[in-house]
Amino acid sequence: MERTDSLDRSKSIAVDGELQGDTLLSVCPQTLPSGKVFCLSHYWSRRSKTLVQETEKEHEHVLMDETGMRRALTRIAHEILEKNKGFENCMLIGVRTRGIYLARRIAERIMEIENVPVPIGEIDVTRYRDDRSGRPEHTKEDAAPAMDIHNKKLILFDDVLYTGRTVRAAMDALMDLGRPQMIQLGVLVDRGHRELPIRPDYIGKNIPTSRLESIEVLLQEVDGMDQVVITQQRRQNG
């Protein structure tokens, strides 16, 4: 093996780990103590991780902060009360997981506005989806145990409306539980690209997107913060 005993100091890292430039040329491990090689390796591992994080941040944009989310949910609460002339015979249903927490927040606002009790339930649509292979048999207990929805006005709430398949699955699950008087739909974010004829009654924010973008709703109860974030996904070659 040919030994490389020198580094270009203007474009390299010194052996003691101090940064002298951006490019490490070539170092034969045999010319340095193992600890020194580890130091260089540790630097580049840490540097690579930092570059990846910086690149990811360049493709991320906050669309809604805590204040914007609070205002949107308050507005939706008022719209629900106006559309239904109060909240009599109504019930909020949150789609697991984030839809549940959003429904609870709306319920709190309705109680503050009207000073009336707000029935609230939750539903799990996992076993009702038609876009996942190997769907197991489902039962009423899988969707929402012990929830009486017969002849009630249901306001189904989820975080993001995309293709509409989650909403369709939620309606299938609800129909297994009983026959509601009607089902209304509310979402925090409508990002478009519907594959089914579904349109929400209540929308926090319309956000036109491409299919290369993803929308993520972060909630204090789950993620430790309230934000709506859009991320640009990289195109794959080939």
UniProtKB/TrEMBL annotation:
<dbReference type="Pfam" id="PF00156">
    <property type="entry name" value="Pribosyltran"/>
</dbReference>
<comment type="function">
    <text>Regulates transcriptional attenuation of the pyrimidine nucleotide (pyr) operon by binding in a uridine-dependent manner to specific sites on pyr mRNA. This disrupts an antiterminator hairpin in the RNA and favors formation of a downstream transcription terminator, leading to a reduced expression of downstream genes.</text>
</comment>
<protein>
    <recommendedName>
        <fullName>Bifunctional protein PyrR</fullName>
        <ecNumber>2.4.2.9</ecNumber>
    </recommendedName>
</protein>
<dbReference type="InterPro" id="IPR000836">
    <property type="entry name" value="PRTase_dom"/>
</dbReference>
<keyword id="KW-0805">Transcription regulation</keyword>
<keyword id="KW-0694">RNA-binding</keyword>
<dbReference type="InterPro" id="IPR023050">
    <property type="entry name" value="PyrR"/>
</dbReference>
<feature type="short sequence motif" description="PRPP-binding">
    <location>
        <begin position="154"/>
        <end position="166"/>
    </location>
</feature>
<dbReference type="InterPro" id="IPR029057">
    <property type="entry name" value="PRTase-like"/>
</dbReference>
<comment type="function">
    <text>Also displays a weak uracil phosphoribosyltransferase activity which is not physiologically significant.</text>
</comment>
<dbReference type="GO" id="GO:0006353">
    <property type="term" value="P:DNA-templated transcription termination"/>
</dbReference>
<keyword id="KW-0328">Glycosyltransferase</keyword>
<keyword id="KW-0808">Transferase</keyword>
<comment type="similarity">
    <text>Belongs to the purine/pyrimidine phosphoribosyltransferase family. PyrR subfamily.</text>
</comment>
<feature type="domain" description="Phosphoribosyltransferase">
    <location>
        <begin position="69"/>
        <end position="208"/>
    </location>
</feature>
<dbReference type="GO" id="GO:0003723">
    <property type="term" value="F:RNA binding"/>
</dbReference>
<dbReference type="GO" id="GO:0004845">
    <property type="term" value="F:uracil phosphoribosyltransferase activity"/>
</dbReference>
<keyword id="KW-0806">Transcription termination</keyword>
<keyword id="KW-0804">Transcription</keyword>
<comment type="subunit">
    <text>Homodimer and homohexamer; in equilibrium.</text>
</comment>
<dbReference type="InterPro" id="IPR050137">
    <property type="entry name" value="PyrR_bifunctional"/>
</dbReference>
